[in-house]
TrEMBL record:
Belongs to the tyrosyl-DNA phosphodiesterase family. GO terms for biological process: DNA repair. Residues 47-109 are annotated as: Disordered. The active site is at H219 (nucleophile), H459 (proton donor/acceptor). This is Phospholipase D/nuclease. It holds the Pfam family Tyr-DNA_phospho. SUPFAM superfamilies: Phospholipase D/nuclease.
Length: 567
């Protein structure tokens, strides 16, 4: 991915003028042709009973070698009607011991996050606050030992298999790993097993494009780790490539969930339902281990983070009940619940790595959602000049202002070239729209983001909406909810979040979404804002804000970085 000079060698392909970037490793298509063979049926990864039995036999062998009984209460899981004996692990909010064998050292403390956390990526350019190395997200699993890890399923926009595969053990202790990507070019839909001849335990599941727009992007980034006693969910802002987790800034939401006892099932928790729906939308068969076993973990949670996902709509989704399950509709529902069904006049900052071709009406719609206003009452906005009037009335904004009061954070051309630590070579995965921003006029909303850790490029995607004036006031309770924040894969684009409109001839309200995206939304308090600006912030929510606040407005001569406008 990165050559000896530190240059990113991924090839950039533009899908449309409002979507996120599309990157593939050089030679990726040829590798697929030469080194993997597609399996004819998606059902090939449906019933994994045989592979499960083989895994258990390997586990028994390891137990015999360690002088332990071949089976105990944690060894058996349900396979084709066999009995299940699974013990629920009581959540420990302190660090737990888990042996590993890395660089010859035996055990170390491994934190488990039963209430969720957000971590900043490691960055080679930040010495005082280096962040967390990606391999630490996977511990106690190491390249030498699975330490209870049996299965993995992950999704990414682009990947570096050589880098990623080195973090998991091989041989008898290797977990079964499924990589999800979207069909593109010569990479056709289907199951590629093995993904590579040297990775017999890896499978590539390529999602079909049937019925989807040619511009649809599978932009989700997540990993689910299935251990014998727990499940770890990781929702990421960066792709599964070395570059994203060493040279630019990204974040990871991490949540551990304990295994349930015996045959108990969790079919009602929000995390479980959301993730099963996402996997189903990605064509993961019902018989796949992830779909079968997720209900065996207690995914109820006291964590304040709420999942928000976008799934492409083959046809527009109609009716508010359905709209509130996806994209901007789901965001509106979660924000309303966080704010207690009250509207706030908010200051909004939106940080991302790709810029949309914004219209005033779509940003007005998004701004209205951010305030917690009753969107069912005010959306969809009418067309033309009536849209401004309707939006201003709903949000208490000035009708004379065409663009909503939002700060769009995106690096300027001059900042990239003169101040960013890697210069132009570090900005190859950032997609601005210089010409469109000037012609349409939304350049007036652009602000320069600067990381709290120095002049590094931020691939991290976040939205922060905070009650106006609250930072200057002195509230009696610093833990009072004053807004909310988002982190995940969504850039601030219509393709990512979707658009709410009326059906033909004034028909039922409907939602259209182009991309797969995934993130979490959390409530924000004044204490979280103060903590976020410290050199080493503590707490899950403080780590969402990775930039110095307030971001500074572009200077008159500034234009957004646009890699396709370079000469």
């Amino acid at each position: 991915m990165v050559d000896q000079k530190g240059n990113d060698r991924r090839t950039a392909i533009v899908l449309d003028d409002s979507d996120d970037e599309v990157l593939m490793n050089d030679g990726a298509k040829k590798q697929v042709e030469d080194e993997v063979k597609p399996v004819n049926s998606m059902a090939a990864i449906g019933d994994r009973a045989l592979m499960e039995r083989e895994r258990l036999e390997r586990q028994r062998k390891r137990r015999r070698e360690a002088g332990l009984p071949e089976e105990d209460d944690d060894d058996t899981i349900s396979i084709a009607g066999s009995s299940s004996k699974v013990q629920k692990v009581t959540p420990q909010r302190t660090e737990v011991k888990s042996g590993n064998r890395s660089n010859g050292k035996e055990s170390q403390d491994i934190p488990l996050y039963w209430s969720g956390t957000i971590k900043k990526s490691f960055n080679i350019h930040s010495k005082s606050a280096p962040g967390t190395p990606f391999e630490d997200f996977l511990r106690p699993t190491t390249p030498f030992r699975a330490n209870g890890l049996t299965h993995v399923i992950m999704a990414t926009f682009c990947e570096d298999i050589q880098w990623l595969s080195q973090m998991f053990p091989k041989g008898e202790s290797a977990p079964e790993i499924t990589m999800i990507t979207l069909a593109q070019g010569e990479l056709k839909a289907g199951v590629y097993a093995p993904l590579h001849p040297q990775l017999p335990n890896w499978i590539r599941l390529v999602v079909p494009r049937r019925g989807l727009s040619e511009y649809t992007t599978m932009h989700m980034k997540f990993i689910i780790l299935f251990y014998e006693d727990r499940l770890r969910l990781m929702i990421l802002s960066g792709n599964l490539v070395d570059y994203d987790w060493r040279r630019i800034e990204n974040t990871a939401f991490i949540h551990d969930f304990p295994r349930l006892k015996n045959d108990e099932k969790d079919t009602t928790s929000e995390y479980g339902k959301q993730m099963r729906r996402i996997l189903s939308s990605l064509s993961v068969p019902a018989g796949h281990y992830a779909m079968r076993m997720m209900e065996s973990y207690d995914m109820s949670s006291k964590c304040e983070a709420r999942i928000v996902a976008s799934i492409p709509t083959f046809t527009p989704v109609t009716g508010w009940a359905a709209i509130e399950e996806l994209g901007i509709g789901r965001l509106g529902k979660v924000v309303r619940e966080i704010l207690g069904n009250k509207m706030l006049e908010v200051d909004i900052e939106a940080q991302g790595s790709s810029m949309g071709s914004y219209s005033p009406r779509w940003l007005q719609q998004f701004h209205l959602i951010c305030t917690g206003a009753d969107y069912r009452k005010h959306l969809p906005l009418p067309t033309g000049a009536k849209a401004v009037k309707a939006w201003a009335s709903a949000t208490k904004c000035k009708e004379s202002e065409q663009w909503p009061p939002m700060r769009l954070l995106f690096p300027s051309d001059s900042w990239v070239k003169k101040q960013s630590v890697e210069g132009v070579s570090g900005a190859l995965t950032f997609f601005g729209k210089k010409k469109v921003s000037i012609e349409k006029g939304f350049i007036k909303l652009l602000h320069q983001p600067v990381s709290l850790r120095g002049n590094i490029m931020m691939h991290h995607k976040a939205i922060v909406a905070i009650k106006k004036g609250c930072e200057q006031a002195s509230p009696s309770d610093e833990n009072e909810i004053i807004g909310w924040a988002y982190m995940g894969s969504h850039n601030l684009t219509q393709a990512a979040w979707g658009n709410i409109s009326s059906g033909k001839k004034g028909g039922e309200v409907q939602l259209s979404i182009n991309n797969w995206e995934l993130g979490v939304v959390v409530p924000m308090c004044l204490n979280d804002l103060h903590e976020s600006q410290k050199p080493l912030p503590e707490g899950m929510k403080a780590n969402i804000i990775t930039w110095k606040r307030p971001a500074q407005k572009y200077k008159e001569e500034d234009v957004p970085w646009d890699q396709f406008d370079q000469r």
